[in-house]
Amino acid sequence: MSRPVRPSRFWETLAVVIVKPLSWLLVKKDWRHGERIPRTGGMIIATNHLSWADPVLLAHFLYNNGRWPVILAKAGLFKVPGLGAAVRGLLAIPVQRGSSDAAKSLSYSAERLRDGAVVLFYPEGTVTRDPGLWPMAGKTGAARLALESGAQVIPVAHWGAQELLPYGEKRPKLFPRKTFRVSVGPPVDLSKYTGRPAHADVLREATADIMAAITVQLAELRGEKAPETPFDPAGR
């Protein structure tokens, strides 16, 4: 059985003391199906991205369900005095976007999964650009990581972080108090890709399955029907 991956007691305590009270203060909670998150073993949490606030709020949700989330963060954050030490201490994985080093984040993630970590992954790669804030077509990193590592993918959707801190804005909208909704789906069935080479078409199909699973959970949270075809910012 894989051991739980956690930061040092100092960094974990510091994060919990800061994040949990702020989270309880800023938003009401509507958390669903937390029991679907396995309490042991490495796994990928694949989720939608709506706001700069949602990684922190999701981290609280996962922590309360017994797992420490390993978050992929922009490499530039590791160079900020003070903040860099914190993100390293909290076991974040640096992501070098648009460079030849971008694949290193997948390698680091695979190592963490082998150690039994929960890796929080945004397959869209950025905050959604869909006009209705539905999940976009995803990038293939999460699918590649899942197929190469054998780790299960747990789809998680959330709604409400964008009301607290809309994308692109620096000041949160504190009043009226917002509700942060989360729904966890069953593991994504990627068994049909077992044994198939991770070619581009396989990765795209697996990514579409992951994004569809996230979208199902978001439609439940919103009580709305999702678009038939995900928004593709590349216009493909």
Structural account:
By secondary structure, this protein is of the alpha/beta class. The chain has a single domain, classed as Glycerol-3-phosphate (1)-acyltransferase. The protein contains seven helices and seven strands; from the N terminus they run H-E-E-H-E-H-E-H-E-H-E-H-E-H. It has helices spanning 9-26, 54-64, 83-89, 104-114, 141-149, 161-164, 200-222, and strands at 27-32, 43-47, 69-74, 93-95, 118-121, 152-159, 178-184. Helix 5 packs across helix 7 (200-222).
Number of domains: 1
Unreliable stretches (pLDDT < 50, length at least 5) are none
The averaged pLDDT comes out at: 94
Head-to-tail CA distance between termini: 43 Å
Query: Which architecture would the CATH scheme give at its second level?
Result: 3-Layer(aba) Sandwich
Number of strands: 7
Helix content: 25-40%
Order of helices and strands: HEEHEHEHEHEHEH
Largest sheet properties: 7 strands, mixed
CATH topology: Glycerol-3-phosphate (1)-acyltransferase
Structural class: alpha/beta
Distinct helical segment count = 7
Major beta sheet, strand line-up: 1-7-6-2-5-3-4
- Apparent shape: globular
CATH-defined superfamily = Glycerol-3-phosphate (1)-acyltransferase
Could you name the CATH class? Answer: Alpha Beta
Any idea what the radius of gyration is?
A: 17 Å
Strand content: 15-25%
